[in-house]
Design brief:
Layout: E1 4-7, H1 13-26, H2 38-44, E2 50-55, E3 58-67, E4 77-84, H3 93-107, E5 112-117, H4 122-130, E6 134-145, E7 148-158
Parallel strand pairs: 4-5
Antiparallel strand pairs: 1-2, 2-3, 3-4, 5-7, 6-7
Length: 164
Amino acid sequence: MGYTIQAMTSEHWEQVRDIYLEGIKTGMATFETEAPSWYAWDQSHLRHCRLVAKDGEAVLGWVALSPVSGRCVYAGVAEVSIYIGQRYRGRGVGAALLHALIKESEDNGIWTLQSGIFPENQSSLALHRKCGFREVGRRERIGQLNGVWKDIILMERRSSVVGV
């Protein structure tokens, strides 16, 4: 399978949203129960570090960063969102996107990437470990999804070139 990694634009939103909805339907990817509008999504994510994997016109997956805090001391800390289309999982798309994100995040002064992953999402946990993330803790009963309390595994990756 041939694909390229490129910057995400609003033109990709329909396919990005569809992939996000696939993740939501699994019940293992996010606490969200519906996808936001482009405007809401755009406002909640950093302007840089928004990438898609594309094969022709098809978006295979995407990755983006959200700030973890508005406080200036956390300006170099961001939360990862990564979603791969159901038909393209297990083909290296996630690793390619995450490695590209790591490079771009460091180019933009990010020293810590973090992800909160449901414990049952073993493929996401494995992907993050493969890309240099480590488990830093478990947040028990941190939120509810459809009335059920859920834990998350908190993973992080510290840059070896930014903030050292």
